[in-house]
Design a protein that fits this description.
Oligomer: single chain
Helix content: 10-25%
Number of strands: 11
Order of helices and strands: HEEHHHEEEEEEEEE
Radius of gyration: 17 Å
Number of domains: 1
Structural class: alpha+beta
Length: 194
């Protein structure tokens, strides 16, 4: 997994530089403004301790809130973090291979689309209203009153409910041909089986 992490770092550096021997690495990455590249650098430095260490993330207050979402990952939330600061993301998104975890993206959620994008070129996704359980399982539900005390499929205890959310991903630890702000990453397809 460490070799995979080094390979991902190399590919990410090529994608985020925007050029490889004078040619654009990809159409999605070639339009990343310099200010975003700078913010990505800050975010990578701030989250490097979590890159291959999900246990460190847990020790620092991040808790699992989703199992593997296809082409996206497992989401870990730190409920004590709010607002937008690239050095303190409230969500860390991981993939797993066996017992090895790798950070792939960071994420923010909003109750509605921000009036002004926190970064140039930001693109948003969405996540419907849901009941979340302590094992990371979730069930879509329009109101908290519809959340069972335990998940019928997994037996896990209820954790929290949220209304529909607007999401903002930054793919800073795994290359994404759809761009740094894409919601999904087709390169994660091999991890969907985990």
């Amino acid at each position: 997994m460490r070799s995979l992490g080094l390979a991902v770092l190399l590919v990410s550096l090529i994608l985020f530089s925007g050029t490889a021997q004078g040619q654009h690495a990809s159409e999605a990455s070639s339009s990343i403004p310099a200010s975003v590249v700078s913010q990505v650098s800050k975010a990578r430095l701030a989250t490097s301790k979590y890159a291959m260490d999900v246990e460190q993330a847990k020790a620092d207050g991040y808790m699992i809130i989703t199992q593997m979402i296809p082409n996206m990952g497992y989401h870990f939330l730190n409920p004590k973090i709010s607002g937008f600061d690239v050095t303190k993301p409230p969500l860390l998104v991981y993939v797993r291979s066996g017992s090895a975890w790798q950070l792939v993206a960071i994420e923010w959620v909003y109750p509605k689309r921000p009036a002004k994008a926190p970064l140039p070129g930001a693109r948003y996704g969405s996540f419907g209203a849901a009941c979340h359980y302590k094992d990371g399982s979730f069930v879509m539900a329009s109101a908290e009153a519809r959340c069972a005390k335990t998940n019928a499929k997994t037996g896990s205890e209820f954790n929290f409910w949220h209304p529909p959310l607007v999401t903002l991903h930054m793919w800073i630890w795994y290359p994404n041909p759809n761009g740094v702000f894409a919601e999904f990453n087709p390169l994660l397809t091999p991890f969907n089986k985990e």
